[in-house]
Amino acid sequence: MKLDLYQVDAFANKIFEGNPAAVVPLERWLPDEIMQSIAQENNLSETAFFCKSPEGFDLRWFTPNREVRLCGHATLATAFIIFKIFNYKLDKILFKSLSGILYVEKAGDLIKMDLPSQNPIICDIPKLLKDGLGLRPEVCYFNEDYIAVFKNENDIISIQPDFQKLKMLKSRGVIITAPAIEYDFVSRAFFPKYTILEDSVTGSAYTKLIPCWFERTGKTKLYSKQVSKRGGELFCEY
After folding, report:
1. What region does 111 belong to: left with phi over 0, alpha with psi -120 to 50, or beta?
2. Catalytic residue among 17, 27, 33, 46
3. Catalytic-residue membership of 182
């Protein structure tokens, strides 16, 4: 059996930037254990598999150690392949996924994703979170991930996490964020339970960050950067 595999740097302005995702087109679904093994072999934060369906495309995402319900950057990467490599004629793609129906469309030179909002709720700051980040956030939110809000961009860049402590939290991962000068806000994201210590650019994190920053600023349009080593920029709208 031979499969095509594409690697795309999502949220990138140039090569070696953004978040790399693998994209594998399928004529029919492979057994889950085979797709998991391919994702493990790729050893990227996500490998996306897609199949044509009557309405559009079915889409699934795998980290090196498990399937996930939502992945933004691998969705963006898959749409790029469908538009650019497969010369898809429509301007909008419908994906059926574990998170329901997702729409991705052309927006000039960009690709626009419509992801579900996952409003985070303000919560107490767990001791493991504070100890794992080495710095106490100003406020903490929770919705599947912990979202720790800090004073400024320097706080975000300077944090050196203790991943063993963050791994013990009862959450998918930890997102840290703060206001910035050049951007409305910056962020970083850590998912040690998924073998992703720091994710380069995390589309699904913005389903929580955007409602959080809307609540804090009242802005419906927000310009953001994930300040990981590779980094990536996002134009966001609530």
Report:
1. beta
2. 46
3. no
